Amino acid sequence: MTAPTELRFPEFVWIWNRLNAATTPAHHLRIARWLGLAWERGETRLLLMCFRGAGKSTVVGLYCAWLLSRRPDLRLLVLSAEQGLATRMVRNVRQIIRRHPFCRHLLPRHGGEWAADRFTVRRSGVSRDPSMVARGIEANITGSRADVVICDDVEVPGNSDTATKRADLRERLAEIAFVLVPGGQMLFIGTPHTTDTIYATEQRPGRDTPFLAGFRRLVIPLLDSDGSSVWPERFTPERIAELRARVGPRAFAAQMQLEPQPPEDARLDPAAMVPYEDELTLHAANHGFRLLLGGRTLVAASAFWDPAFGAPGRGDASVFAALFTDAEGTRYLHRVAYLTHDPRAGTDAATQLCRQVARLAQELHLPSVTVENNGLGRFLPGLLRAEMARARVACSVVERASTRSKTERILAAFEPLLAARRLWAHQSVFATRLIEEMREWRAEARAAADDGLDAVAGAILAEPARLARIAQVIRETDWRPTESFRGGEDFTP
């Protein structure tokens, strides 16, 4: 079969969707027309920004297969923040080439290079570079050559949450100039994760020009200028409302409307927490136990301890936070305790603090406590387990190292719940220093004190762990429903 040079890209996409018994969403057709026209006009600098879950990578994968169907000699390089993401696109393109009727002439005669992260199609010339290859942004691409470079989600929270990381990302992306052949095409696709994003259209203070200045752009937010969904079949008004409530207004604006919000605008209003006075009661019924808060049955709990060992009233605070969840997903911040130790006591500070945490775990019937084990907290989980066993407290200890910035953790935890008014707080919480921390907290500046915020964020983001069947006392007092409950899920629309 000869190469189908006359087939336009929108038709190529439609044929593929028809082959897979799928429809072609209107915004996919818009992207296909834009990409196809840009290739025919010889435009070499392109930026495609779409809302999360738009299927933009799927369309760009079809674009790569279409390019190879027209010019089998092309060399395509896919760069992503992680190798796995880039490999997924290459693997998808390989499957399209195998099954699309207008790509049959690309299948190699004798196998050849056909791996998950790289493949070479049937082509007339000989080249040391494969037809398509996947690379993570951290990989060494020196010596490679490409006619088309696809930068698929090269900016993610993990490499853009600090100025140093953003500078490093820009430096690595600058290497593309040495890989792309003269006249080659560079296509960025993604969503912004910071106000100082590589996708910015306006000049930022301290920068000469936007990083992608001169790139032709296609920007497709989820909601158009009239507030209507551009993909109503999948993102219905109910789904959009649920999504906005789950991720919070700032994350929705950035990831779905492509409008990152300045961090200095972030506020944590304690008035958005719903106060309550009820206490926990353990109720025995049907050969089991239920934990009640007033008339509400609780289905999960998470507790977090952010330890510190400074002298009382100095330095970082050692804060414990306990949070409960009912069947409707409402979170109840039941306890926030700023722990202190007595330097004059005969017992060391770590043991004193562990005993306080063990008492709280027993009083609150907690199934587990998560301990941040960064720095000084590295040896604490073992000591806490020993104190739990000594006091016969049926509570497991989970270790966790924090890898995200404190600001990112606090915003990710508090904003969605406060915006939806799904975070309730016990009256005792309003008497702690947490309220003052919320009022004074600013995302861009180091707060005078934010240890309570960090502990509560840890409790919100922690997943309740199911207890192993290790002791009769645990099995008899485990109040949680037998059905698995998972909390703190990541945003994946």
Distance between the first and last residues' Cα: 40 Å
Structural class based on helices, strands and sheet pairing? alpha/beta
The ordered H/E elements are HHEHEHEEEHHEEHHEEEEEEHEHEHEHHH
- The number of strands is 16
CATH superfamily of the largest domain: P-loop containing nucleotide triphosphate hydrolases
What form results from the Cα inertia axes? elongated
**Could you name the CATH topology of the largest domain?**
Rossmann fold
Number of domains: 3
The top-level CATH class of the largest domain is: Alpha Beta
Helix content: 25-40%
Largest sheet: 9 strands, mixed
**Beta-strand content estimate:** 15-25%
Q: What average pLDDT do the residues reach? A: 87
3D architecture notes:
The chain is an alpha/beta fold and about 500 residues long. The protein has three domains: about 10-220, 3-Layer(aba) Sandwich (Rossmann fold); about 230-260, no CATH class; about 270-475, Nucleotidyltransferase, domain 5. About 30% of the residues lie in helices and about 20% in strands. It is built from 14 helices and 16 strands. The protein has helices at about 10-20, 25-40, 55-70, 85-100, 165-175, 175-180, 235-245, 250-255, 350-365, 380-390, 405-420, 435-440, 450-460, 470-475, and strands at about 45-50, 75-80, 120, 130-135, 145-150, 180-190, 215-220, 275, 280-285, 290-295, 295-305, 320-325, 330-340, 370, 395-400, 425. Strands 8, 9, 10, 11, 12, 13, 14, 15 and 16 form a nine-stranded mixed β-sheet that branches. Helix 1 (about 10-20) packs antiparallel against helix 2, helix 1 (about 10-20) packs across helix 3 and helix 2 runs parallel beside helix 3 (about 55-70). The radius of gyration is 27 Å and the shape is elongated. It starts with 8 loop residues before the first helix and ends in a 16-residue tail after the last helix. About 40% of the residues are buried. Residues about 465-475 and about 480-493 have low confidence and may be disordered.
